[in-house]
Amino acid sequence: MPRPIEALVHRSALAHNLARVRAAAPDARVLAVVKANAYGHGIERVYEALRGADGFALLDLAEAERVRALGWRGPIVLLEGAFEPRDLEHVSRLDLWHVVHCSAQIDWLAAHKSARAQRVFLKMNSGMNRLGFAPAAYRAAWARLSALPQVGEITLATHFSDADGARGIAHQAAIFDAATRDLPGERSLANSAAILRHRLPQVTADWVRAGIMSYGSAPDFPAGDIAHWGLRPTMTLRARVIAVQQLERGDTVGYGSSYTAPGPTRIGIVACGYADGYPRHGAGGTPVLVDGVATVTVGRVSMDMLAVDLGPLADAGCGSEVTLWGEGPHGTRLPIDEVARAAGTIGYELMCALAARVPVQTVD
């Protein structure tokens, strides 16, 4: 029989979360972000549930090819734009929109022979300090693009660094507003955290970029959680107990003997490890559900196995279902953000790290 581990992608949860984006930004058009293979879910698996968006946003041409192959004829935005001049040939062929964040990309456009004008998102570095033109250089970049016959509509864009935290977005929004005042064109500012936490018309117009909230993770966890934001998990990772060990006081578990039994203790060995994408740093104390009952891991995570405390579960044993994150049995739920916090990371990383060897099925 196959190894007892699998991931589930929940179509109904994806559609639900997209509806939450619409509710939070009712006047905006929505770009469903499907970069990193739809945050580890698989572009082909999420497409039907997310095709109600107004467009898709992603990083590379191969992902854009996949979305077009699924039948999508609407907008697709390359969030980092072209990486070299010949990328623009594929942009033209696939009819893609693309970010322009540096002078070299404008140079490439100026040299590109295109049968149709391209839609670009002109990126401002308003404080994130990753990509984009400095505010003082933004108007000059806009003027250069506007003069090119290769360029059609220009959308004005930036990205917030602190929409999920106490600093907020006011400082960046003010910089953006000042630098773009009187410039024509639609705007795109809001990521998931800004959509949920900063519902201002100037922030959520005209295109919002819905990333992590589409996949059932709270961008501002632990200040907010998915219950607070009305989101649902879109990925479940589950496995089964494949062995049970009865420990006595002083017995240890796993590599490095990092867990020592305080007294008689039953532990379950679960068919999941870091080679499946489970965080190795999710050592003892990381929450799990066994048959829908909350318990924790004990000891170090191995490549193919981890151990859980069966103390709270007198009836659990070999074959018991273990929810590593997501939807559990009997209506139970373990948000991925809680697992990530215990492992010292974020839900984004866990989703994206799901290993190729884990079977995945799409369910409603």
Explain this structure to me?
It is built from 13 helices and 19 strands. It is α/β, with parallel strands linked by helices and 364 residues long. The chain folds into two domains: 207 residues, TIM Barrel, CATH 3.20.20.10; 129 residues, Lyase, Ornithine Decarboxylase, Chain A, domain 1 (Beta Barrel), CATH 2.40.37. Helix 8 links the parallel strand 7 and strand 8. The longest helix has 14 residues. It is elongated and about 75 Å long. The model has no long low-confidence stretch (mean pLDDT 96).
Oligomer: single chain
Q: How many domains, in number, for the residues?
A: 2
Shape: elongated
The spatial strand order of the largest sheet comes to 8-7-6-5-4-3-2-9
Biggest pleated-sheet summary = 8 strands, parallel
What is the terminal separation in angstroms?
25 Å
Annotated CATH homologous superfamily of the largest domain: Alanine racemase
Q: Which stretches are poorly predicted, pLDDT < 50 over at least 5 residues?
A: none
The number of helical segments is 13
User: Can you give the helix content as a percent range?
Assistant: 25-40%
Extended strand count: 19
